[in-house]
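new request in #modeling-help
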Amino acid sequence: MTDKGLSMEPYKGVRDFYPEDMAIFRYITDTMRQTAELFGYEEYGASVLEPSELYRGKSGDEIVNEQTYTFIDRGEREVTLRPEMTPTVSRMIAAMRRNLPMPIRWYSIPNLFRYEQPQRGRLREHWQLNCDLFGVNSVEGDAEVILLASSIMRAFGLTETDFVIRVNNRKIMNFIISDYLKLDDSIGKKISRIIDKKEKLPVAEFKKMVTSAIGEKDEILLTLLESKNFEEFVSHLPKNETLNIALQEMRTLIESLENKGVRNVQFDQTLMRGFDYYTGIVFEIFDTNPKNRRALFGGGRYDNLLSAFGVEPLSAVGFGMGDVTMRDVLETRGLLPKYKNPAYLAIIMAEQQCLPYASELTRKLRADNVAVSMDISGKKVGDQIKAADKKGIPFILVIGDDEVKSGNLKIKELATGVETVISDEKLSAFFKK
Amino acid sequence: MTDKGLSMEPYKGVRDFYPEDMAIFRYITDTMRQTAELFGYEEYGASVLEPSELYRGKSGDEIVNEQTYTFIDRGEREVTLRPEMTPTVSRMIAAMRRNLPMPIRWYSIPNLFRYEQPQRGRLREHWQLNCDLFGVNSVEGDAEVILLASSIMRAFGLTETDFVIRVNNRKIMNFIISDYLKLDDSIGKKISRIIDKKEKLPVAEFKKMVTSAIGEKDEILLTLLESKNFEEFVSHLPKNETLNIALQEMRTLIESLENKGVRNVQFDQTLMRGFDYYTGIVFEIFDTNPKNRRALFGGGRYDNLLSAFGVEPLSAVGFGMGDVTMRDVLETRGLLPKYKNPAYLAIIMAEQQCLPYASELTRKLRADNVAVSMDISGKKVGDQIKAADKKGIPFILVIGDDEVKSGNLKIKELATGVETVISDEKLSAFFKK
C-alpha cells in the first residue's frame, strides 16, 4: 500500500481483461469451442488447484519445484496451480476408466500457471484449449486430432499457406537414439534436447553441440537430420521391422490428412516436443509469417499416462493451443473482430419524467430479446450520446415528452448517422431483422 | 502416491467437471451471461491471483489470514487466490477511472476461493456471476441491478412465488445504531452481526443476545426489528431529515421495482449482509421453497470502495450469484436441462474400407456446420451404437459397402427408433431443420 492508496496493478505476469480484451478472449475461445464441438468433442473442466504429486512422477521434480506455483495449504497438503492440463485430464479419465464409453473426445479451455519471467507471448497465466481423443490406437486417431487443430486455425480465417503442420514420430526417434546409435538414457535425453533446438541454432554451433554430446556417431545423426524430405531420411536408415511399422504410420498419416484436405503437412525429423510422455506421433503448428516464423502450438500421442494411476493404460492423442499466442497471430494478420457492445440500443432520456415510459419500452424490448442499455445517469443528452458511442453501442434513441406523447421514435445508427422513425409498437421488429 | 499409483481424486473441496456437469455449468453461466447482456452489461475478467494487500484494508486482516488461500511467491510477493470479485473490479475501474465513459455496466463470472471446511453448498472453489453498475447515484440504479438479479432468476424458469427479494438500507440501520441508539463502533458492529442472525435463532435466545449486547436499549431495537412491515417500522422511528431521505429512497425503490413488474419485494430490517463496504441499499434473493428456506445470494450499494486506491470515489451497486447455489436450486425444482452431446450424429463404420467415404461425408457435414462424431475405434457395430447412445448423441448412421455404393443412407434417431432413408447429398439439409 503506497501513500496514495492500494496499487491498481494486477499481479505480475497476469492480465486484466477490460471489456474490449474480454471480447477478443471470448471470440478466440468461442471459435475454439465451436470447432471442437463440430467434431463431437465434449467439454470438461476442473479446478486450477491440484495436488502437487500429480506433477511429480511425470514431468520430473524440476518442473514442480522451479517452474510452478506450489504451496502448502493450512492442512499441510502440497498444492499446485496447474501448469498444464494433460495430468488433470488423465486423472479424471483414470478415475472413470470403466464407466466412460470409448472413444472419448474431450476438450477444455483451462487457465494454466507457470512461474517464469514474463515476456512477450510468455505470461505467468494463460488459457489453453486442450483437445484429447482417448481409446483410438490408430493413425486415424492421430489424423483426426491434427485435422481438428488445422480446422480451428482455418475457422480463425487463416489459410493453408499461413501455417505448416510439422509431424514426427517418437518411435522413429527412439529407434535412432536407442537402437541405431545405441546411446544410453541420459545422453539420449541430452541429444533429444539438442535436436529440438536445431532450427534456432547456427549450423556450426549445432554440429559442435552434437559432436560434443555423442562423439564419433555425430555423422550418422547429422546426415539423418539434414535430410530434405521423408524418403531421403528413410534412405539413410537401416532395415528394421519395428522401425518399419513407425515409418509406415508416418506415410499413412500424411496420406490420411491429404485425403481430408489437409495438404500443409511436413515431416520434420528435428521436431521433438518437450514432454517426456509422448509415445508416438508428435506435431506442431508452425507460423510461416516471414516476419515471425515460429511454433505456435502442438501435441502428440501419449499412450502410457494412465498407468501412473495404477489403472490399465489407454491410448490417447491430443494438443494444447494457447490464447496469448493465438491473439498475437490474429492481431498481426488483422483477423480480430471489432469490439461490439452487447447492447444494440442505448435509450437516452431527455427529461427525467420520461422514466416510466422509457422503463416500459426497455422492458418490452428485453422481453423480445433485444439487448438494451438504458442511460439513467441523468447526464446531458449530448454526453449520454457520446458515452453510448464510446462504448460501441450501435443505435441510440432519445426519449423526450414528444416521443412519450406520440409513440413515434427516432432510431439513429451512430456509425452511419442514418435515422429511422418508427412507432414504439414496431421497435422490437426493427432490431430483430 | 499410494502403492497403486497417484490419487485420482481432485484437491479437497474443489470439483471435477465431467461433461454432464460441465453442460450444467455451461447452461447456468450461459443463462447468466445472456441476461446480463440483454441489460447491456459488458463482460470483463481478471486473474484468480491478486496481490494480498487488495483484501487487507477493506475486509480486515482476519479474512486474509484465516479464510483465504494466501502464499508467498518466489519473488517474496504475498499473493491470494481471490475470495470475491468486488475488490478486483474496484481496482480495475480505479485504474481506468478517467477513460471509461459513465455509467459503466460490467459483469464477470470468476471462480473464487475460500479456505473453509467443505460442506453442502459451501465448497472451497465456486464460480460467481458479478454484476456491477458504476456512476449512477440514484435509486433507479439500485432498481436496475435488482431487476437484473430478478430477471436472471426468471430466465432460469423460476416464478415470482419461488423467491422473495428482501431489501434494506444501510443508511437506515446506521442511523438506528449510531444516531438513535447511540452505540459506539465496536458495539455497533457486534449488534449488526446479531441482527443478521435473527431469522436463524429462537426468539428467546435472540432477545437474550440483544440485551446482553446493548443493555436497556434492547426494547427500542426489538420493537423496530419485530415490526411487521415498512410503515409500522417507520412509525417507531423518530423524525430526522437524514433518516427521512433514506426512508424515502426505500419507498421509491419498491415503487420503481413494482413499475418494472417486480412485485415479490419485501422490506426486511434484519437484513444486514456481511461486507463492511456497503453504504446504501442491500438486498438478498431468498428461496421460498418450504423445504429449504434460505438466502441464495445478494448485493448492495458500495459508493466508497474506489477511495482505497487514492482516486475519487464512484457510486457503485452490484451483486454476486454463485453457481453451486443456483445448481442446487434448479436441481431441486427439476429445472436443469437434460445432457446433450455436442454431436448430432454418430457415423459408424461397418467395415474399415468405408473410411474414405465416411471421412468425406463427415467433412461435408462439418463444412455445413453439422456437428459429427465419427467412430474410428474399430469396435463392433453394436458396441459403437451403444457407445453413441450412452454419450447422448441423438442420431446414428451406419456405413457399409451398400451405403458407399448407393449413397442412400439410413439415419436413425436413437430416442424414438425412427429411421429415415436419405441420399448423401441431402444429409446436411436433414440436420439443418
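bot summary: Chain B touches chain A through 108 residues (CB under 8 Å).
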